[in-house]
Amino acid sequence: MAIEHYFILSAILFCIGMAVIITKKNAIVVLMGVELILNAANINFIAISQLDNIKLGGQFFALFVIVVAAAEAAVGLAIILKIYKYFSTTNLDEINQLKG
Amino acid sequence: MFYFFCGVAVLSALVVLFSKNILYAAFSLVATFMAVAGIYVIAGAEFVAITQIMVYVGGIVVLLIFGVMLTNKISGKAMITESRNRFSAAVVMLSLSALLIYAIFQMNFTALQGQALIENANYKPTENLTNINQLGIGLMSDYILPFEIAAVLLLVALIGAATVAGYKERSDGH
């Protein structure tokens, strides 16, 4: 499989994740968009690691990205829970205390 | 097979983008992660594919669904999320994807592949190692420092998340 195809798939997934982050109002769906973007980055790492199947640098990096994604999801959801307790909503447009 | 997984990944990601129901979005996110794991298998990264299924599908999506359950008043009606900035998002998404795909077609990957072939030709493997063997040996030798740092980061993040989500002000002043 030509390596360009992996990159194109990754670019499409990245753009969809970006659009999810921009459009959605619910904070949890925004986190889903972040996960999509991290997956797109991982596809790039795995595709590059095909060229170098002795050292496998890309696969190691993808594993560490997965670890950081798990940590990010846990902390993000904890913060969203606190925001929900404080504001009683997860709608990002209504959480605008700093807006003048 | 590769194009099948690509199609599933892109279509279910589009469901995440266009679905109004948060739970449908979460379940189609599962389909996206499974398809991406299939792509990892095709690219020869079996261990990363298994990790993807276990961590993302078994962990992160379940966490997201718990988040949905805990932040919505369960009242029998569907959990709806609204959209905003549709026009600017469409502009950003289409122009960014056009730019990225144009840049990908401009890149010269055959030179990169030739370089990799030359480097791999100089390497004489002493024994036949599978992908998981290679990853295990690498994690315990070359990548031991990032491995330990990742372990500590995960510990700190999970304790921090539990503290942030579960912290209650004590009434007796301590």
From TrEMBL, chain A:
Keywords tagged on the record: Cell membrane, Membrane, NAD, Oxidoreductase, Quinone, Translocase, Transmembrane, Transmembrane helix, Transport
Catalytic reaction(s) noted: a quinone + NADH + 5 H(+)(in) = a quinol + NAD(+) + 4 H(+)(out)
Membrane topology: Multi-pass membrane protein
EC number, as in UniProt: 7.1.1.-
Transmembrane segments: 6-22, 29-48, 60-81
MF (Gene Ontology): oxidoreductase activity
Superkingdom field: Bacteria
Coiled coil: none
Locations listed in the record: Cell membrane; Membrane
UniProt subunit comment: NDH-1 is composed of 14 different subunits. Subunits NuoA, H, J, K, L, M, N constitute the membrane sector of the complex.
Function field: NDH-1 shuttles electrons from NADH, via FMN and iron-sulfur (Fe-S) centers, to quinones in the respiratory chain. The immediate electron acceptor for the enzyme in this species is believed to be a menaquinone. Couples the redox reaction to proton translocation (for every two electrons transferred, four hydrogen ions are translocated across the cytoplasmic membrane), and thus conserves the redox energy in a proton gradient.
Family: Belongs to the complex I subunit 4L family.
Protein name, per record: NADH-quinone oxidoreductase subunit K
Gene source species: Fulvivirga kasyanovii
This protein's encoding gene: nuoK
